[in-house]
Amino acid sequence: MTAPVFQDITGIILVGGKSRRMGQDKALLSVQGKTLIERALEPFQQSFEQVLLIGDRPERFAAFRLPVVPDLYPGSSLGGLYTGLYHARTEHIFVTSCDLPFPNPAILRYLCDARGRYDAIIPCSSQGSEPLFACYRKSCLDAMRDRLEQQRFSISSVCSSLRTRLVPYQDIASFDPAGTAFLNLNTPEDIALLS
């Protein structure tokens, strides 16, 4: 196995969502023969030396032999993002949520290469910004903690106060010919469409 591409970025996979609309744990759902967590892990383990899973009930993921860190601020994606950034031993993290069935390694690497001096590098799709497939610097921690303590959970709101680069979809579209990089699974119907 080749060495990970980025030794100075920690991969963060959010696995703590409540999955209310899905009715079961999304991370362990199977799509086209692989669980969603396995689909996220493949490009992450190829790209990052360290990968952390952020969520509760670590016994669910014991087979993956990875650190599972409980949310410091349970109940929101921002809380999971903050927790991953807080616990990372690197200056940068790259985050994904476990409900993206086709995490795109070419887009991931493009965003990591573009991080420069920015606090956050966030891609855009036809639906808008995609803050849960993005690169963040530890300089975001204070602003994130402030929002969490104010019970304000919008990641986009936090990023508006930081040095954020939004990457237009046309800059990364060539890496996504099938148009599935930001497909998000929330309901059993979403899963059925991929069967």
Provide a quick synopsis of the model.
With 195 residues, the chain is of the alpha/beta class.
Feature tags:
29% helix, 10 strands, molybdenum cofactor guanylyltransferase activity, 7 helices, 195 residues, 8-stranded mixed sheet, alpha/beta, Spore Coat Polysaccharide Biosynthesis Protein SpsA, Chain A, magnesium
Care to describe what's here?
- With 195 residues, the chain is α/β, with parallel strands linked by helices.
- The chain has helices at 36-47, 77-87, 105-113, 141-149, 155-159, 169-172, 188-193; strands at 6-14, 30-31, 34-35, 48-54, 68-69, 92-97, 120-125, 128-129, 133-137, 164-167.
- Strands 1, 4, 5, 6, 7, 8, 9 and 10 form an eight-stranded mixed β-sheet that branches.
Task: Tell me the CATH superfamily.
Answer: Spore Coat Polysaccharide Biosynthesis Protein SpsA, Chain A
Helical fraction equals 25-40%
How many beta-strand elements? 10
* Main beta-sheet strand count, sense and barrel state: 8 strands, mixed
Ends distance: 31 Å
Cα radius of gyration in angstroms: 16 Å
Binding site for Mg(2+): 99
Function: Transfers a GMP moiety from GTP to Mo-molybdopterin (Mo-MPT) cofactor (Moco or molybdenum cofactor) to form Mo-molybdopterin guanine dinucleotide (Mo-MGD) cofactor.
Family: Belongs to the MobA family.
EC number: 2.7.7.77
Secondary-structure map:
Layout lengths: L5 E9 L15 E2 L2 E2 H12 E7 L13 E2 L7 H11 L4 E6 L7 H9 L6 E6 L2 E2 L3 E5 L3 H9 L5 H5 L4 E4 L1 H4 L15 H6 L2
